[in-house]
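Action item from last meeting closed. Structure (257 res):
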């Protein structure tokens, strides 16, 4: 039973850890984007629509993660799907799907809409939020419970925060702290650079930089091993809990679309 609870805990939160964009110089956003955007905006305008797939493993049990990034009329759209595979399907039902739309403004990522459907937890959970930057507030719901929060500075949903991190890496360095909407709370995410190491995954061999993040006062630490020649796409994702490796995900496929 403990293994089943661990699986459900992982599937519930793993999407937060693994959604990540890929960038390239060949593809830009819609042509009606304001030409007065600063240098950080120009960097993210090179985001490449793509599909990426990861193999996820907890002990002997496994799953699959698929992410897709598209250009939209208002900016960008990112979707992530996580589902159990193999033996894990005997213990874990359903999947987790998260979707975020966001724009680039004032040198960074600003989420517009976020929604999530979780069919893996004991009870299905649905979340939907709209970000109103003119009024500096976010409104939405967790299941049937309404949520309204005041935004004090830049805040991200559980998907768009990864794109902000990638944007900062592209422009030189990630910040040390980010603010994230996690269900009905605003939480602080602490970031640190743990250096470089050589990585071998099914998609290839790389030298990667390790970017760690953790929620304030959490025992879970996640490390994204990001590769510069793939424009800082994570090729390996590891989560440690209480100092022990709990989750590992490796890049198996990447395809610009």
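Sequence:
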């Amino acid at each position: 039973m403990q293994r089943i609870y661990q699986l459900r805990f992982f599937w519930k939160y793993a999407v937060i850890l693994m959604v990540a964009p890929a960038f390239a110089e060949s593809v830009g956003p819609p042509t009606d984007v304001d030409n007065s955007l600063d240098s950080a905006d120009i960097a993210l305008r090179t985001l490449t629509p793509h599909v990426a797939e990861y193999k996820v493993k907890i002990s002997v049990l496994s799953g699959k993660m698929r992410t897709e990034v598209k250009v939209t009329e208002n900016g960008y759209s990112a979707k992530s799907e996580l589902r159990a595979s193999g033996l894990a399907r005997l213990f874990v039902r359903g999947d987790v799907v998260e979707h975020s739309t966001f724009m680039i403004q004032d040198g960074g990522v600003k989420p517009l809409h976020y929604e999530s459907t979780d069919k893996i937890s004991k009870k299905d959970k649905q979340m939907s939020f709209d970000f109103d930057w003119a009024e500096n507030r976010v409104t939405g719901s967790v299941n049937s419970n309404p949520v309204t929060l005041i935004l004090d500075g830049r805040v991200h949903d559980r998907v768009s925060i990864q794109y902000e991190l990638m944007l900062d890496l592209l422009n030189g360095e990630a910040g040390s702290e980010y603010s994230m909407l996690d269900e009905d709370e605003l939480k602080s995410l602490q970031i640190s650079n743990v250096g470089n190491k050589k990585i071998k995954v099914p998609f290839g061999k790389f030298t990667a930089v390790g970017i760690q993040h953790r929620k304030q006062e959490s025992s879970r630490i996640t490390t994204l091993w990001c590769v510069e020649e793939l424009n800082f796409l994570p090729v390996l994702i590891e989560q440690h809990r209480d100092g022990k490796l709990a989750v590992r995900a490796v890049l198996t496929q990447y395809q610009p679309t």
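Note appended to the action item: The domain at 2-256 is CATH 2.40.360 (YmcC-like fold).
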